[in-house]
Amino acid sequence: MTAILRAAGLSRAFGSFEALRGIDLEVCKGQRLGIVGESGSGKTTLIKLLAALDQPTAGQLWFAGREITGLPERGLGFLRSSLQIVFQDPRSSLNPRMKVGDIVTEPLRSKLVRRELQGVDRKERLREVLAAVDLPADSGDRYPHEFSGGQRQRIAIARALAPKPEVLIADEPVSALDVSVRAQVINLLADLVDKQGLTLLFVSHDLMVVRHLCDSVVVMQSGQIVERGTTAAVFSAPRTDYTASLWAAVPRIKV
Ligand SMILES: Nc1ncnc2c1ncn2[C@@H]1O[C@H](COP(=O)(O)OP(=O)(O)O)[C@@H](O)[C@H]1O
Ligand SMILES: [Mg+2]
C-alpha cells in the first residue's frame, strides 16, 4: 500500500519542553488510524505537524510522496486541498460572523486550493456537502449560532469535505458536544469515511469510539508513540500498562 503520510523522527519542542519526540509514522491510503493517549501526550501537536499547520523542530514529513518539511505556504496547495481537519470545538472553529455557506465553502476560495480543484462549482458543492452531513439545504444562509452543538460540528465536517479531501483528520471531534449527540456525529463520520473512501486520522481519548471507527491505532505518552498495531490487537492484548490503564478508564458512550 502507498503511504499518503509519512513522518520520520518528527519532534516539536516549545522552548526546552519537548512536546513530541522522534515520531515515526506511516499512514496508508484508506487507513483509519486512531491516535490515543492521555491529555497532554502530544496528540494535537502531532496532527498540527502532519497538517503543516506547525513546523517540526526536527525530523521530516512527506505527503503523497512529496517532502513537505519546511515548505513555504505557497508550496502546500496540494496538501491544503487533500487534507482537512475537524477540530474539537465548533464554537471556536466556526467564525460567528460568517454565514454557514461562506464558512463551508471557505476552503474552496483559497487561491492555493482553487489551483488544485479547477472547475468545482461552489454553490453546487455547498449543496452536496450540506446534504452529505444531513443539514437542511437552506443552512447556508444562516449563522452558526442558529445551530445546535451537534449541527455546528456537522458544519465543520461539511467544510472539511468541501475540497474533496483524501485525508480527514478529526481531533476529538465530539468531546465538546453533549453526550446525547456524540454517537450521531461519530456514526456520520463513519458513514462518510466509508462512502468516500477517506483516509482517517482520528484523535480521541475514547477508546471505544476508536475501536468502532479505526483499523489501526497508535498510543501516545509524553510525546512518544509507546504502542501501535491493529485496533483489534492493541485493544485485546495491550502490551503496556499505560494502554491497559487508558482502556480501563474509558468513559463509555454507545455507538
Ligand atoms: N504552543 C505551545 N506552547 C507551549 N506548550 C505547548 C504548546 N502546544 C502544546 N504544548 C504542550 O505540549 C504538550 C502536548 O500538548 P497537546 O499536543 O495539545 O496534547 P494532547 O492533544 O494530547 O492533549 C502539553 O504539555 C502542552 O501543554
Ligand atoms: Mg489535543
Mean pLDDT: 93
* CATH secondary-structure class: Alpha Beta
- Ranges where pLDDT stays below 50 over 5 or more residues in a row are none
Helix content: 25-40%
Ligands, ions, cofactors: adenosine-5'-diphosphate, magnesium ion
Can you give a write-up of this model?
Strands 6-7-8-3-9-10 form a six-stranded mixed beta sheet, with helices on both faces. Helix 7 (149-161) packs parallel to helix 8. It starts with a strand and ends in a 7-residue tail after the last helix. It is globular and about 50 Å long. Helices cover 38% and strands 25% of the residues. With 255 residues, it is an alpha/beta fold. It has one domain: 3-Layer(aba) Sandwich (Rossmann fold), CATH 3.40.50.300. The chain has helices at 43-50, 77-82, 90-93, 100-109, 111-116, 122-132, 149-161, 179-196, 207-213, 231-236, 241-248; strands spanning 3-14, 17-28, 32-37, 58-63, 66-67, 83-86, 167-171, 199-203, 216-221, 224-230. The mean pLDDT is 93. Strand 4 (58-63) and strand 5 form a beta hairpin. The structure holds adenosine-5'-diphosphate and magnesium ion. Adenosine-5'-diphosphate is lined by residues 14, 19, 37, 39-45. Adenosine-5'-diphosphate binds next to helix 1.
Could you list some keywords that capture this structure?
single chain; 255 residues; alpha/beta; Rossmann fold; 6-stranded mixed sheet; 4-stranded antiparallel sheet; 11 helices; 10 strands; binds adenosine-5'-diphosphate; binds magnesium ion
